[in-house]
Each structure stands twice: as C-alpha cells, then as structure tokens.
Design brief:
disordered N terminus; 66% helix; 2 strands
Length: 400
C-alpha cells in the first residue's frame, strides 16, 4: 500500500526535465498582440473542432471549468480527503521543482499565464487613500476595539502577502467573504433547532448573499486567482478558522458579527473601486468570463435580487460586456452587501425587520406587479425552452 501511495505521489516527476520548452499559453488575446497572446491564438487555430462564436470570442482563454478540488462528485470524507491530499501534493512537488528549474513539457512560466499575463495592478497606498476618503465622507464604521484591530492587521497582511497580485488577493477575499454567510445561516438553524427564534426572511437574504459571493469566487478562479498552491492552502485554512470564530461571536452578539462583516465589505468596495480606476483601459479590452456573463445576464435573477434589500425587484440589471463591467458589477455588489449588513445590525439592535425584497413584492400585489410577474415568468420559460432546444440539438449531433 505504501508503495502504491508513493507511486501516485511521485508520478509527475517522470515527466519533468531540466530545459524549458515553449508551449501554448492559456491566456487571453489582448490588443496589441504579445508573444503569449500569439501562441495562445496559434493553439486555438491548430486545435481540431474549434468553432467560432460567442463562447470563443476570447472568453475560451479563461480557465473556465478548472477545479482544484479532489473530486467532481459527492463521496465519503475519506475518499475526498485522500484524493485531495494526493492532488495537492503533486502540485507542491511541481511548484517546488519549478523553482529550481526542473519543469515539465506543459510548464508555463507564471508571468506568461493567468493571472499575471493580464498585467493588472493594484496600489496598496491607493486603497488606503480610498478608505480614508470614504471614512471622511461617510464616517468610520462604528465597531469595537477588537474588531477594528483584527481588521487593521488583516489589511496589513493582505498588502504584504498579495502585493502586486490583485487577482490572487481578490480570490482570497472572496473565499473569506463567503464564510460569514455560512456562519449566519448555520447559527439561524441552531437557534431554530433549539426553539429559540426563527428568522425566515433573514435566512433567505443570507443564502442569496452567499450565492452572490460564490459567483465572485468563480469569476476569480476563472482568472487564475487560485493558481498557486500556497494561496489555496492559506485561504482554505483561514476560512475554516474564521467560520468557527464567527460562530462563537454570533452566539454572543449577532450585531457584532454583522458589524465586522460591514468592515470587510466596505474594504472590498474600496479595493475593487481602486482596481477599476487603475486598470480601466485594460479591463475594457477584455471579454467577460462565461460564468460572469451567465450570472449577470441570465433570465433567472431571483437570488441576485434577493440579497439587495435596498432595491426594488428588477431595478438593477447591470451590463456585462467586458471585464471592466464584471469588476464594476462586483464592486456594486459589495456596496449592496454593506447596506444589507447595516440593515442586519439595525435588526439585531433595534428590531427593524430585514425583509426579503421578494417578500415585499408579494405583500403588496398590485395589478402592475402581477403584470411584471407574468412578464418575468414568460421570459424565464422562453429561456428554458431555448436552452432545452439547444441541448437537444447538441445531443442529436453527437449521434450523427
């Protein structure tokens, strides 16, 4: 058994060799053409079965569908854990050997692959300046000394560890940003299971917030934000510890748990806003990842509307025609999360009910609302029918 495990763990080494060879780059086609972009174009042109169309208009060069997980289906914790361990061990070996010049035939230097090949930047000082201006304009987030200290230490860590690596930084932020919503829903289930309290509307809103942050995370993964093993290791372990700490905080004070999340979401707004200003020209030239386009422009935007408690249903339908639009949408999403966290604090302290936007619409059903519901239903049904027709035609072509 030990021999089999060692063989699995060390199997990539047989493919390594010392001299580096040129290989096609998994990157985007950027104007003006650069060496890595030309090579990625040649790869696309030489690949059999490649078709032109919306999905191949640059978007295919993102890391769509890439996964660093140990399995693609549910399984026992032992199977998932052992598979994940072997997979990550191979990644550690590859990265370690690459640092000493031993690389495989399919090796791509970090500077020629996503996300570094995009040439995006983020100034730590500019983020701090944006935060200072926001606090001067809107006031500092009212919080306790412990929360503020943890927040300041966390920001300092982000600046040092992810300096000049904005996409990796965003991936780490989105991994952490999902955890509070996991925590809130878990604690609400606990409260209800003990018969203490039931928060139906609050749970709906937090589930929608989690779904929104999940899509932010998927976007960062499609841009290569989790490409380095140490980033993934750090993100997963910090998230695990953060979950249990926040559970304890929520158990004693939900308001403080919401307050700390307001701090983090406000920082996210400052960070994404600064990133947009510094990279506008480049981002405007790049297409949106498929996952972003599907999320922001699909017919089913129920959960997208659900987490925005400050807006009416259907009033926010942002464009998604470029990577700039994607990051602008994410920045606006984070601003909506800030408003929702403020509302949740008022709920915890003052008893001002946080209500699902859809519940508000259902409680005031006018003739115009019913017409809008009918219209939304027809659009959704048409979208499902078109998708079914497309999948049927694709399936039929497989048998021809």
């Amino acid at each position: 058994m030990k021999a089999v495990f060692c063989a699995l763990l060390l199997s990539p080494i047989s493919a390594f060799h010392v001299p580096r060879q040129s290989s096609p780059v998994r990157a985007l086609v950027l104007p003006p053409p650069s060496p890595w972009a030309l090579r990625s174009t040649q790869e696309k042109e030489s690949s059999p079965g490649t078709e032109s169309g919306p999905e191949s208009n640059g978007t295919s060069f993102y890391l769509e569908g890439k996964s660093n997980f140990g399995s693609d289906k549910p399984a026992s914790s032992f199977i998932l854990g052992s598979t994940f361990f072997v997979k990550q061990s191979k990644e550690i070996i590859k990265e370690g050997l690459a640092k000493v010049g031993i690389t495989g035939k399919d090796y791509i230097p970090p500077e020629e692959s996503l996300p570094l090949c995009l040439g995006l930047r983020l100034s730590n000082e500019a983020v701090k300046e944006a935060e200072r201006k926001r606090e001067e304009r809107d006031g500092r987030v009212e919080t306790n000394v412990v929360s503020r200290t943890l927040y300041d230490v966390g920001c300092l860590f982000l600046d040092k560890f992810f300096d000049e690596r904005p996409i990796a930084r965003f991936w780490f932020l989105e991994i952490i940003a999902r955890i509070p919503y996991f925590t809130y829903v878990s604690m609400l289930h606990l409260y209800e299971s003990f018969g203490w309290w039931r928060g139906i509307q609050l749970r709906k809103v937090h589930n929608a917030q989690d779904d929104n942050e999940l899509h932010h995370l998927l976007i960062m993964e499609s841009l290569g934000g989790d490409d380095i093993w140490k980033d993934r290791f750090l993100g997963y372990h910090v998230a695990f510890g953060y979950y249990w700490i926040l559970c304890a905080v929520y158990l004693f004070s939900p308001a403080v748990a919401y307050e700390f999340m307001e701090l983090l979401e406000s920082h996210a707004v400052d960070t994404y806003g600064t990133f947009l200003k510094e990279n506008k020209d480049k981002l405007m030239q790049l297409p949106p990842p498929t996952v972003a386009r599907k999320y922001y422009t699909s017919a089913d935007l129920y959960l997208f509307d659900e987490f925005q408690v400050s807006k009416n249903i259907g009033t926010r339908r942002p464009p998604c025609d470029s990577l700039y639009d994607v990051f602008k949408n994410i920045c606006d999403d984070e601003a909506e999360h800030v408003k929702t966290m403020v509302a949740c604090q008022d709920y915890a302290r003052l008893g001002e009910l946080v209500v699902s936007p859809h519940a508000v619409l259902e409680d005031t059903p006018g003739e115009m609302d019913m017409d809008q519901k009918r219209k939304n239903w027809k659009e959704w049904a048409q979208s499902v029918n078109e998708m079914s027709s497309y999948e049927s035609s694709e399936g039929a072509s497989d048998f021809e």
